[in-house]
Amino acid sequence: MAVGTAATLTVGLSACSSNDRTLTSAATAEVAGTSSAAPAPSPSPTSSSPTPTSPTAEPTPEPATSAAEPTPEPPPPAPVDPLTGGAPSGNPVLAVKIENTAGGWPQYGTGQADVVYVEQVEGGLTRLLALFHSSLPEEVGAVRSLRTTDTEVLPAYGSPALLFSGGAGGPLDALADTPVVDASGMGVTWRSSAAKAPYNLHANLQQLAAAVGDRSPARDAGFTFAAGDSRLDAAPAVTSIAVQFQAARAAFAWNGSAYAVQRNGGSAADAQGTAITADNVVVMNVTAEPDGVVDSVGSPSYISHTVGDGTFTLFRNGRALDGHWWRGAADQPFRYEDASGAALPFAPGSTWIVLATQTTTTETG
After folding, report:
1. Cα–Cα dist 131/113, whole Å
2. How many other C-beta atoms can be found within 10 angstroms of the C-beta atom of residue 292?
3. Which of 80, 192, 208, 360 can bridge 356 by disulfide, Cβ–Cβ 3.0-4.6 Å?
4. pLDDT greater than 70 at residue 290
5. Model confidence over 57-81: pLDDT tens digits?
6. How far apart are CA 268 and CA 259, in angstroms?
7. For residue 122, with 0-12 CB atoms within 10 Å meaning exposed, 13-18 middle and 19 or more buried, which class applies?
8. What is the 3-state secondary structure (H, E, C) of the chain?
9. How far apart are the first and last CA of the chain?
10. Which positions make up the signal peptide (predicted)?
11. Using one digit for the tens of pLDDT, what is the confidence trace for 135-152?
């Protein structure tokens, strides 16, 4: 065997001299180099490698669901004044009965009124019922006497204060049955040197407001307001309006921005120089009947009924809109609607309402 031969050689060489050790080493190395013993194989790992596994698929997440966002409510409209459609005023509502014949012209303070009613009185003449709220002039007039029509109109405004200079028993009794505040004795009037009696009784509305206090707040009288309205596009253009009473005339001319009150062939102004204009003119067709009062020459006084219903024409922005008005009771507001029952909005600003009786005629141009 190869292993035995290598052992004999090694023993025999051990007896040689040291000089021969080099050869012995070489021989030993040679014999070792010629050994046919194969190197021991590397040990195999005792533990087996783990069997690879496929990764577990993660589940696809479901898209998150949440409750639908609610649609936000639109902000409420800004409050507006119920008489003008403008910024609300904290002033009381003060009504004044004002002369409307040539003897009482020029009128004082009329150009600052928010709402003005033109009413038929005895003899086919007219008087004004002017409501002041957003502005309270220090001088208004000439103040005249009460009429039954006033007592039916005014409760639509709640409890306004009414300034007047006396009246017959029937109208005074009717006024006492309403929530209207009687301001005739509040000490705010004087006789002016501007004219002769009975056309010279004037009043200070700043003083009247202080005397009335919080008894006459503004409330909804039935007006709705809008700066524009699609129905105006198809409405006829009207630049002049004239309502003829038996002995008086209420006339207005569109000047491109408002309706100017016409008197003696021209546009009127009050004694303070303020132009008398209206952003809205309403010709409100009503029924009038004698109220049982007669004047000093036997002419009957009339009540123009504003409780009930009828037709009207609203003139605004130089155009005319026809509609139907109604009011269920004296303490309820007016309603002004078109043929479908939708409200006809007024232009923000001042309003003149002509109570056109069955004996009047209306002309437009």
Report:
1. 6
2. 13
3. 360
4. yes
5. 565 656 555 567 788 888 888 899 9
6. 11
7. buried
8. CHHHHHHHHHHHHCCCCHHHHHHHHHHHHHHHHCCCCCCCCCCCCCCCCCCCCCCCCCCCCCCCCCCCCCCCCCCCCCCCCCCCCCCCCCCCCEEEEECCCHHHCCCECHHHCCEEEEEECHHHCEEEEEEECCCCCCCEECECCCCHHHHHHHHHHCCCEEECCCCCHHHHHHHHCCCCEECCCCCCEEECCCCCCCCCEEECHHHHHHHHCCCCCCCCCCCCECCCCHHHHHCCECCEEEEECCCCEEEEEECCCCEEEEECCEECECCCCCECEECEEEEEECCEEEEEEECCCCCEEEEECCCEEEEEEEEECCEEEEEEEEECCCCCCCEEECCCCCECCECCCCEEEEEECCCCEEEEC
9. 147
10. none
11. 999 999 999 999 999 999
Contact between 92 and 161 under an 8 Å Cβ cutoff? The reply is: yes
Residue-wise pLDDT tens digits, 161-188:
999 999 999 999 999 999 999 999 999 9
Q: How many CA atoms lie within 13 A of 169 on its CB side?
A: 1
CA 197, chain centre distance (Å): 45
Measured between alpha carbons, how far is 95 from 116 in angstroms, rounded to an integer? 9
Report the relative pairing of strands 161-163 and 240-244 from DSSP bridges: unpaired
As given in the structure block, the two tokens for residue 316 are 């605004």
Residues 6 or more apart whose Cβ sits within 8 Å of residue 308: 286, 287, 326, 327
Joined tokens for residue 244: 């003829």
CA–CA dist 290, 29 (Å, integer) = 157
Tens-place pLDDT, residues 35-54: 344 444 444 444 444 444 44
Contact assessment for residue 186 and residue 213, using Cβ atoms and an 8 Å cutoff: no
Residue 76's pLDDT is what? 84
Q: pTM higher than 0.70 for the full model? A: yes
Q: Are 279 and 258 in contact (CB under 8 A)?
A: yes
Which token pair is 72? Answer: 């936000």
Distance of CA 14 to the CA centre of its chain: 129
Reference 121, options 287, 248, 230, 19; nearest CA is 248
- Structural domain spans, the chain: 94-364
Question: Could you give the CA distance from residue 129 to residue 96 in angstroms, rounded to a whole number?
Answer: 6
